[in-house]
Amino acid sequence: MQQPTVSERDHEGLDAFWEKVDLVVYLALIAVVTPAATKMVSAAWQSGGLSRTLVVTLEELVGVSHLEFVLFWLGAYAGLVALLLFDDIKRVQGVLLVVASAIAFVGFRSNGLLTSLQPVENAPVLAAGFALSFVLAGGRRLRNGKPPYEFRAATAALFWVVATIVTVGFLERHLSYTTPVSFADGRLQTAAAVTNVTFVGADLFTDFVAASVLVIGAHLFTSYRAQRDVFVLGVQRAGKTMLAAALYKAAEQESPNTRLNPSEPLTSLSSSIHGDDDAVDGFGDDDYTGPTEKGETHLHRFRSLDGALFKEYVNVDVLDYAGEYVGAKLVEYVKAFAPSRKLSLAWVVYVYESVRGLPSIPEKAEGLDSAEIQRLMAKQIVHSDTLCVIVDAGSLVPEVPYGDEDYRMQDDLSSYLETYVQILRHVDESLLEEKEVVLVVTKSDYLYQLYRTVDTRLDFFQWVNYYLLESPEGREKLGPLVNQAQVDRVHPVYYDLDHDASLEAGEPVPDRPITVNGARSLLRRIKGGA
């Protein structure tokens, strides 16, 4: 069977282009914001406020000079930044931080700070700070571990260092007050309570913007994780479970050395399907491969690495449920939960849930009633970033050579497409942010049988998109859904099947070794790619 060919090169080239644009933007922001922030922090230090008093007190208590104190912490900071250069996820951010640090160093010197450091004479102090932070933040793993390396302690420390210095500097710069403590005669002395606090408005807007950009940028640079809430919407027997397994296999192939942290149901499902590619028996020998029973939910969760320059983990959650719940009652719940007016009860609840977050979904739940599951599904739809809408390819062809029992159990195509359209309509008419809608055609091997009878130079992926989105026959079948979802692309996904064995068994039997087609393109789309 021909592999579906996606125009991956064009999309990957576009992704790479925008990452380079992001890199240029970050460099421009660093060049503009860092000098303003260093000027603000320098003025705050020279004002002699509470923070400077506490630093001087600490120096006296420890028994080190101000020069030794500064050099030790500069070395410690350099050790943390150095670790980022070895971090396989945050290496580019480490390079940008080196650039920002160099600009900040020049800025501090031009403002009268860090002018007489004498690093050569005090090399042991500088080296001690570097070595201590480098080792404590995980540098020993470079010798004892194996890639990919991640130094989360270093990134967390760097965030708090930058955020603390910038925030305290902003407050010290724009609040004028009498320092309540002082250090004299070798001890900390308490003065009068803080009185006559006045606000200094000079350069307030510039400093606020610079401080905000640096703190937010530090958080983004040091975060390893991005959350994309994905809800897979599919009727009974449409292939939601196997789609979850296909996406997980695609993530394994895409990043073979990455810890994907799959949930227990997904681990069991994947082991059953892909555990022994040479085995004839054992396919589906688990609790999850078949149709999900009513009253049950299974959470298939994993993470995947996204990005080339700016890498981050994206969490992908696929909630598996009985497809019978996709019906009129679910539409009613979505309409009720999607706020249509500000300050309405639905809007207040939505804002509260957005801030607080939805309750964690158990990896496996049983004994739930229909209303409880449909309410859960509606909440997930309303709060999702991406709606992955499944169309079963078997319902797009006149007849199927095997697996016809699925379609006796399944609603007819026009019926379940109308349910999809109504759900998307209520989402669109609400105050919710526009959601990404991804149209997935599962069991696309059925369409391949039709593709083989067509005289075309298009590859399979391109033909499926033409057939479903542009041809009169495809538009007649999927037109209302395509119009409501506003998609310009569909994603066919299928497993290679042993057709002789499938005809004999009367149901799909996968070929060995297991091969999934189209899942990598779909995973990239779900993660936010083109």
Automatic annotation (TrEMBL):
The keyword Transmembrane applies. Residues 254-273 have a biased composition (Polar residues). The keyword Transmembrane helix applies. It comes from the Archaea. Residues 254-275 are annotated as: Disordered. Keywords: Membrane, Transmembrane, Transmembrane helix. The chain crosses the membrane at residues 23-45, 65-85, 92-110, 122-139, 151-171, 191-218. This is Uncharacterized protein.
